[in-house]
Amino acid sequence: MEYIARVEVSLKPGHSDPEGETTKNSLKELNYPVREVRVSKVYRIILEASSAEEAEALVEEMCQRLLANPVKDDYTFKVEEKI
Questions:
Q1: What is the tens place of the pLDDT at every residue in 32-66?
Q2: Are 78 and 45 in contact (CB under 8 A)?
Q3: CB of 15 within 8 A of CB of 23?
Q4: In the predicted model, is pLDDT for residue 83 greater than 90?
Q5: What is the domain class of 2-81 according to CATH?
């Protein structure tokens, strides 16, 4: 079966986010009442697996091995069967 995974990787609290800070400053210059901006990456992955549990295990492994750095990143993901 085919599954679609949506993985969001973001910096852990306490890590500097220069891109988010630059975006916040630009929005404030445009007179938006912005207090904080944090930047995340979103991956949309289509994969083959025999079950939803296998797909989730594969995505977890992908996150740990490549998509997220456990020292500085947090991640969440959701896996759904592709219709």
A1: 999 999 999 999 999 999 999 999 999 999 999 99
A2: no
A3: no
A4: no
A5: alpha beta
